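Researcher: We're teaching a course module on how sequence relates to structure. For the next exercise, students receive a sequence and then see the predicted structure as tokens, so they can try to spot secondary structure elements on their own. Here is the exercise chain.
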Amino acid sequence: MSSPTRFLARFTLLAALLLVLPGCQTIGGWFANEEPETETLPVDALYAEARQSRDAGNHSRAETYYTRLIARFPFGPYTEQAQLDLAYVQYRQGKHEESEATLDRFIRTYPTHVAIDYAFYLRALNGFDRDSFFLQRIARADMSARDLTRVRASFDAFAELLRRFPDSRYAADARQRMVYLRNFLARHEINTGLYYHRRGAYVSAINRARFLLETYPQSSYEADAVALLAASHAALGQEALAADARRVLALNAPDHPHLRGDWPRRPGLWGQLNPFGAGR
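Model: And here is the predicted structure for the students to work with:
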């Protein structure tokens, strides 16, 4: 192809693109605002569309409608409920920080709302789900050895719900989740105490065991904490204190391996690589 011909072909292509671009901008503008009716629907119809999308599991579309409803109609019963529903669809999408922020605003604005206990409950659920506890079962990762700031915050959030609304319909579920979290946090303490014990830091191990017993009573690791007290006091030559701990252990957990001299065990290879792993 000669140079003039190539020039003419390029000029023709450029001219075609210039003609098409305005149309693309129009199409792009349409897709950028794929729900133009959110700007024109009355509040009841807007809420109905949002609720229908939520019930159908289209949480992204529901979020769009709820957000526009709240922006266009900042007051009224539809707006109050829309804020709770918005927090829910954000939670279902894994947008935990956004959901918590929505709930914080709702709690500040409507502290006496009939569904205020639900707002506290959903806020606690956001913290519970944020760290994906199911990974512990899937990947066998010892998540209790990680930073547990958020876990403690979730525990405190459920505790606040029970303190404020002990008769709430969500109280029973909150208590069950707190049992799980209490055991999770107690496991972290016993793992850390065992780590100290293996390193010969027996006073630190004793402090961890006492903290566990005082802070997380009735956890699944109470017996281990008493056994750790017995083992650490014995290692320090404090036989009277060790005997007291063994006596308490025998009364409450007579089958505990420490009473057979089989606890805590020396960690295997994985335990050496992951010194905060479980020591049982």
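Model: If you want an answer key for the exercise: The chain has 13 helices and no strands. The longest helix spans residues 3-32.
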